[in-house]
């Protein structure tokens, strides 16, 4: 057994904390999106009213799905252009103590697409490229609004399921504003200060110059990190202030900050499952999805944790002690930090890829093949394991629809979900949403692994691991995750363009059928449940749902994974190197 | 479809809210929010907010959170670091303005060769260390390249060398290491570790 007792205790406690946060957060979010007063209204309601007035928004006026989509697209396009502009002009703007120059056009485009889509793929090193102003007003701003956009869309879809014979899905501007003011901003204010108390930096100083005891010179990057760190996790964005992301001691200095950051990543997603149940009038519907997610979460840990704790056999032969003991964490420590060891690294990795976060506190490219397969598969399955803020819920609902459809086929009845008949149009939209991702990922990966422009980026690793790197890039981009097998030299025109398109498709081409689906459902009547209705709350539904997610994933990706991580695992055991 | 796509309604319903909300939220979330957090952080936690910087005899000697490149035998050494120079052209261990990992895959020849060289070097530098396998964290590069910590095993491995270089007894140095172990948070989260700068400052303080 390669799992220590301490690992088990940490995992159980972590899941218990997620469980404990789910209901209070879910209840609170239900109130926020129902437009009710909350205990923060005395502070934020005046600001909210001011924003609506200044922007000419009538909060009482709801939109059909088409209006909702247009508002979302126009708003995101405006933000994307603003970020691109900031990157290109940062050399003339304030808060740039290191006098960093403008970001090159294609890199600026890739980054703008990346942060707008909640991906936060980074083809640059933050401390070498982005001024403090670009980090705050450009990147951290998008961390807020891409998260709020995801939450708004999930809520709109849930309204589509909850409302009967209606036309409207809500008001995008209102949902976005309320998600930002009442949920993201207050948690960030408190969370950022908690991180600072542990050592996460928050300043506008120029980089610190140190003459070390050993006679060396060291320049230490600084910046307004804590305010960005917390929203990067809470909004499941993942774009690090520094190149090393949450492995950097100024982003994630202690085991406590690591715990806070993991909870920030997963809690809103988990809470939204409860909110869904609440909004459709049966909390067990939400808990069923929650249970399916928890099962998949534990499955991922059960593969990755022993793989990493077991270490790298090629290094064991050389005389490296990888045995866990009271004196050392042991395991595969390449790319990992001592304060986190194996458990906190793997737990963070599974959390960040189960959701669409993509922040990393250890470097996935150096994971063992099976340890690296888990984050890859987590993202490929659609990041529905609690998932990104909003995106996890609407992704999971697509799988739920597919599950009732398949269950309906088995018994020859028209499938229904929450009392709404699932007909041709809904199944088509759900299938379309679920097919776009594999088509994008495998299509781009196939092209990249035969074109010289694609292969030229394999500067660090080759062989099956190189294929894993390429697969990971498009999986992460399309899934809007943003974590990387970072050995791939992705800052080239080929990868900047294809990666950016994978991100934009993964976000907006996925969202549109989902809202169309919501728009089609909202107008339907609710049929009362009869004896032939398949209940979507019990263990049978949960196991079917888990089965559908795993089978769809396995059928789609197994051939590609067999050539990447799986064959690498076998060759590693046989002692092969590349 | 009920699309009211006249230009006027497009401007009023979509463009104006999109542009105004982008502007106002950028001010709120991009400037005011980090500004307020910075002000509070500087007021409440000035030491942490400015980088946990450590001074010895009034001189700035580093950050307790950012690892340093130690080479002298009389100091404890940190982990290997894969950080590059600012222009990315060559290895520059513990470059704290360009953090990063090696990103070498588990079956990469370069990884195996590099670890092999590190083991040989480690054994040459520590001839009096116990024989047998070496602690994993002493021969693998960290994720940030700035790991400020080493495992207890990695610190104990270096005790004979440091004691000899300083003319101290191994027991004195060993006790110093053990008194600088930082345990798990609440006894559960994270891993026990030794902060290298902290330990080396304590070593220097011994001789006074």
Strand/helix succession of chain A: HHHHHHHEEHHHHEHHHEEHHHHH
Task: Kindly report the oligomeric state of this protein.
Answer: heterodimer
Largest sheet of chain A: 2 strands, antiparallel
- First CA to last CA of chain A: what distance? 29 Å
Shape of chain A: globular
Residue windows where pLDDT falls under 50 for at least 5 positions of chain B: none
Q: Please tell me how large the radius of gyration of chain B is.
A: 25 Å
Coarse structural class of chain A: mainly alpha
The helical percent of chain A reads 55-70%
Q: What is the N-to-C succession of helices and strands of chain B?
A: HHEEHEEHHEEH
Which range does the strand content of chain A fall in? under 5%
| Spans of at least 5 consecutive residues with low confidence of chain A | none
Number of helices of chain A: 19
pLDDT averaged over residues of chain A: 93
Fraction of residues in β-strands of chain B: 5-15%
Shape verdict of chain B: elongated
Summarize the amount of helix of chain B as a percent range: 40-55%
Strand arrangement in the largest pleated sheet of chain A? 1-2
């Amino acid at each position: 057994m390669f799992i220590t007792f301490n690992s088990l205790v940490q995992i159980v406690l972590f899941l218990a904390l997620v469980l404990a946060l789910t209901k209070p957060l879910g209840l609170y979010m239900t109130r926020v999106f129902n437009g009710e007063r909350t205990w923060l209204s005395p502070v934020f309601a005046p600001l909210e009213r001011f924003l609506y007035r200044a922007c000419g928004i009538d909060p009482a006026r709801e939109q059909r799905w088409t209006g909702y989509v247009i508002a979302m697209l126009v708003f995101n396009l405006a933000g994307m252009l603003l970020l691109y502009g900031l990157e290109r002009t940062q050399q003339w703007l304030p808060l740039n103590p290191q006098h960093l120059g403008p970001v090159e056009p294609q890199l600026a485009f890739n980054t703008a697409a990346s942060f707008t889509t909640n991906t936060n793929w980074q083809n640059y090193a933050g401390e070498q490229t982005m001024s403090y102003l670009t980090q705050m007003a450009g990147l951290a701003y998008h961390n807020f609004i891409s998260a709020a956009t995801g939450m708004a869309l999930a809520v709109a879809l849930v309204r589509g399921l909850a409302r009967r014979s209606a036309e409207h899905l809500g008001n995008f501007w209102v949902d976005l504003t309320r998600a930002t003011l009442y949920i993201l901003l207050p948690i960030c204010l408190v969370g950022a200060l908690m991180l600072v108390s542990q050592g996460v930096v928050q300043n506008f100083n120029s980089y610190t110059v140190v003459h070390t005891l050993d006679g060396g010179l060291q320049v230490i990057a600084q910046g307004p990190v804590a305010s960005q760190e917390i929203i990067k996790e809470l909004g499941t964005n993942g774009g690090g202030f520094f190149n090393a992301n949450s492995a950097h001691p100024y982003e994630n200095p202690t085991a406590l900050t690591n715990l806070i950051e993991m909870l920030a990543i997963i809690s809103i997603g988990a809470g939204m499952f409860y909110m869904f149940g609440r909004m459709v009038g049966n909390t067990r519907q939400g808990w069923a999805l929650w249970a399916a997610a928890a099962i998949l979460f534990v499955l991922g840990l059960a593969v990755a944790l022993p793989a990493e704790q077991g270490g790298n056999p090629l290094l064991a032969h050389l005389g490296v002690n990888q045995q866990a003991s009271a004196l050392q964490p042991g395991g595969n420590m390449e790319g990992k930090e001592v304060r986190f060891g194996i458990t906190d690294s793997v737990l963070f990795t599974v959390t960040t890829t189960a959701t669409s976060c993509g922040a990393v506190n250890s470097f996935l490219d150096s994971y063992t093949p099976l340890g690296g397969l888990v984050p890859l598969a987590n993202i490929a399955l659609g990041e529905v394991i609690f998932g990104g803020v909003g995106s996890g819920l609407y992704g999971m609902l697509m799988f739920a629809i597919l599950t009732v459809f398949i269950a309906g086929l088995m018994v020859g009845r028209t499938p229904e979900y929450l009392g709404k008949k699932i007909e041709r149009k809904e199944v088509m939209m759900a299938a379309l949403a679920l097919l776009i991702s594999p088509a994008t990922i495998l299509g781009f990966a196939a092209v990249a692994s035969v074109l010289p422009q694609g292969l030229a980026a394999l500067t660090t690793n080759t062989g099956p691991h190189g294929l894993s790197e390429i697969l990971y890039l498009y999986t992460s981009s399309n899934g809007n995750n943003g974590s990387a097998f970072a050995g791939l030299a992705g800052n080239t025109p080929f990868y900047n363009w294809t990666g950016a398109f994978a991100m934009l498709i993964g976000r907006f081409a996925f969202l549109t059928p989902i809202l169309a689906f919501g728009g089609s459902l909202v107008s339907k009547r609710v049929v009362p449940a009869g004896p032939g209705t398949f209940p979507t709350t019990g263990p049978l539904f949960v196991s079917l749902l888990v089965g559908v997610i795993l089978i769809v994933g396995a059928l789609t990706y197994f051939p590609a994974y067999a050539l990447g991580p799986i064959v690498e695992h076998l060759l590693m055991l046989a002692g092969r190197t590349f | 479809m009920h699309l009211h796509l006249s230009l006027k309604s497009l401007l009023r319903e979509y463009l104006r809210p999109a542009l105004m909300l982008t502007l106002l939220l950028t001010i709120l979330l991009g400037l005011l929010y980090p500004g307020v957090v910075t002000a509070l952080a500087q007021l409440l936690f000035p030491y942490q907010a400015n980088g946990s910087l450590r001074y010895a005899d009034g001189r700035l000697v580093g950050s307790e959170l950012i690892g340093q490149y130690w080479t002298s035998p009389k100091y404890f050494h940190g982990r290997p670091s894969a950080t590059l120079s600012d222009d990315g052209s060559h290895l520059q261990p513990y470059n704290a303005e360009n953090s990063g990992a090696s990103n070498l895959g588990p079956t990469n020849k370069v990884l195996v060769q590099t670890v092999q060289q590190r083991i040989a070097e480690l054994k040459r530098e520590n001839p009096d260390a116990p024989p047998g396998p070496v602690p994993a964290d002493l021969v693998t590069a960290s994720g940030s390249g700035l790991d400020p910590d080493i495992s207890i095993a990695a610190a104990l491995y270096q005790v004979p060398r440091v004691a000899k270089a300083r003319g101290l007894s191994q027991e004195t140095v060993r006790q110093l290491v053990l008194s600088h172990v930082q345990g798990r948070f609440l006894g559960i989260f994270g891993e026990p570790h030794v902060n290298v700068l902290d330990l080396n400052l304590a070593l220097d303080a011994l001789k006074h």
